[in-house]
Design goal:
Helix content is 39%, strand content 17%. The chain is α+β, with helices and mostly antiparallel strands. Among the domains are: 100 residues, no CATH class; 65 residues, no CATH class.
Amino acid sequence: MFNKIKDYFKGSVHQKIDTHVYPIGRGTRVNVDAGGNMVFATCVEILAKNLAQMRWGLYGPDNSELNTILPLYRKALNLQPYPGVNAYDFWNYMEKQRQGGNAYAYLNFENGELKHMVPLDNAHMQVFWDDANILEGKRKIVYQYLDIVGGQSYTFLPEEILHLKAYSINGIVGRPAIEVLFDTLKADADVESALRSGVQNGFDGTIVLSYTSDLSDSKQKELQNRVKELLANSNNTILPLPAGMTATNIKNDIKSTFDSLKSTNAQAISSFFGIPLAMLNIGGGAGMATFSTNQLMSFYSGTIAPIVKQYADELTVKLLTGRQISKGYCFDTANDVFDMLDASTKATVLCAYKGAGILSANEARASLQYPAKEGGDELQTVGTGGTLGDNAGKNGGGDTTEEGK
């Protein structure tokens, strides 16, 4: 009121500036599914491919392969677990199911031989824990599977089901990776939704309408409604403005925010899965071209090996008898750690192991998938070609001279 009176004596007109912000364009909202995150999907794919390449072997307590028993399991584990499904596709499917929380396969035995492993969809499996002792301690876990094709329900005992878990809290069932990472994936999806909405609507900012007037509250609301109505019509590409009104486009730079959040979330997702950013070709540089041997071995030891251990333990418990387990028999991967190395590095490491007497020539050749050679089973020392156990005076196992050379 005081300003109005002051302006009146100055001979001026009181000016009131109102500013209202409206979204530009049609306002279409593009929603991005949190589960469609490309970094998330790539991490799952990398793990599935690495686990699918594993070959399984049966070993005794001295780590020697039990070739007399392994044939009972070789086809189902390493060749064709199920009719029409090869081993690579089967283990690839199992790992992807495991990243969904749980992976199940029905174990079909005939006359003590593992004939088939039938992959089951984890979405149709229920696991019951007998905490009420209904079964009088005879069974603690019971599996129930619904066949959506035939509409039948099947009940399985624990020894009939191969059950692989991920991110489990209680050790009985696992949790989906997407559930554990939901907050990170949701934040990523929200920012991507905003960016895609801007592209869809043909804008990447907001429009500010400014006018100079002394409108009453009712007139202001009427003006707002008229502008909203114009903006709501997708055919209106030109906004007619009354005299004294201006429109200014204020750019919202969400691109930098998008890139920053994407980078942060990519690091969080890759860290969760235990996959270096270089394997995802993220973080600049030449990607896998800059991936060192130490990084690769760290990936194997810290990420792949623990998963292989879970697979091996489950196979041992479910496929072997109690007597075989008491003898120290166990399943383990037939791949060695050298399989993760490139050809040049692998050759260097194998030569060093052979020279140190850790591997025989035939063991090194087996790692390269070369056939064994006669006389190549003995361990040899570095630079001598002599077998372990030769005395220092016998260079390469040959005769010594009178001087002891």
